[in-house]
Amino acid sequence: MASVCAFSSPFLILNTSSNRKNIVACEKLLIHKNKVMDVPATATSVMDVPTTTTSVRRSGSYPPSIWSYDHIQSLTSKYTGEKHMPRLQTLKEAVRTMIYKDNEKEENPLKLLNLVDDLQRLGISYHFENEISNVLRNIYYNYYETPEKWTKLDLNLKSLGFRVLRQHGYHVPQEIFEDILDDTGDFKGHLQKDIIGMLNLYEASYVSVEDEDILDDARDFTTKYLKESLKNIANEHLSSLISHALDIPLQWMVPRVEAKWFIEAYEKRTDMNPTLLELAKLDFNMLQAIHLEDLKHTSRYICKFYINKLN
After folding, report:
1. HEC profile for 31-97?
2. What are phi and psi of 187, to 5 degrees?
């Protein structure tokens, strides 16, 4: 009986003479194929050589920064320290009295709203948070709480009050502007005579929330109108306000950046209040002095940190 032999191959092959010849022939064939398939070592070394590309970074030819350690430490301000604090307190009390007296009269909400808006844009409203809160509370309940009250207001008063009150968390609906639309849903033509009102309506449209179609339409309408009217405005201050608003709406501005711009614009106004202007300038410079000291302290800390790290 023929014996059975197991190979590494997965086949079982009978151990006969003819089969042994076939096995030898297959082994020779496999050896020949392996030699053909083997790649020479020299060829392999050539094919496996990695190719690297060196990217050359463009130079912007920028000048070196002037903000070196020595430069930062050399910066000074005459507003550093407490020597200007007495004058600041005096001006604050004068403005606080001004707000209190105007609020007691309750005769002209537009004057009060303009005062609050000026304080905010000048960057000094944070000194008078309680006073402003009392002013806006009275204005809201007297003029903006119900439709029966706001229907008596003109476009400018509606728009300015709408923006300022919303900025302080009061709920004033967009329906306050429904009566400025005609039967077809377009804005009434006579509104274009009130350019200050149109500017305030433009700014008010940017404190809208989702799905307030009246404010969305007002934004498009006032933007087109202000752009077309800009070339015909002779008042330099008003022209700069409109250009500034069209460039970046007030709601999108960084408050301290806006304060710097508005201080310069407010100084050119014919009805500017000297007390407000002096307070705004003094407060801005004193805050800048504080920021400067913070910068110098941070620079010293970083320099000391890296020196210790190197040591």
Report:
1. HHHHHHHCCCHHHHHHHCCCCCCCCCCCCCCCCCCCCCHHHHHHCCCCCCCCCCHHHHHHHHHHHHH
2. -75, 140
Condensed to tens digits (0 to 9), the pLDDT of residues 61-119 reads 888 888 888 999 999 999 998 999 999 999 999 999 999 998 887 778 999 999 999 99
- Tell which residue, 212, 219, 220, has the closest CA to residue 251: 219
Within its chain, how far is the Cα of 37 from the centroid? 66
Extract the tokens encoding 308.
């210790």
CATH of domain 91-267: 1.50.10.130
- Which of left, alpha, beta for 272 (phi over 0: left; psi -120 to 50: alpha)? beta
Give 29-47 as a DSSP string.
Answer: HHHHHHHHHPPPHHHHHHH
Residues 6+ apart with CB under 8 A from 260: 284
Spell out where the chain has E strands. Answer: 4-6, 12-14
CA–CA gap between residue 187 and residue 201 (Å, rounded) = 12
Which regions of 205-304 does DSSP assign to beta strands (E)? none
User: In sequence order, which ranges of 248-273 are alpha helices (DSSP H)?
Assistant: 255-267
Confidence bin at 18 (pLDDT 50/70/90): very low
The C-alpha atoms of residue 286 and residue 82 are separated, in whole angstroms, by: 9
Q: Break the chain into its structural domains and give their ranges.
A: 91-267
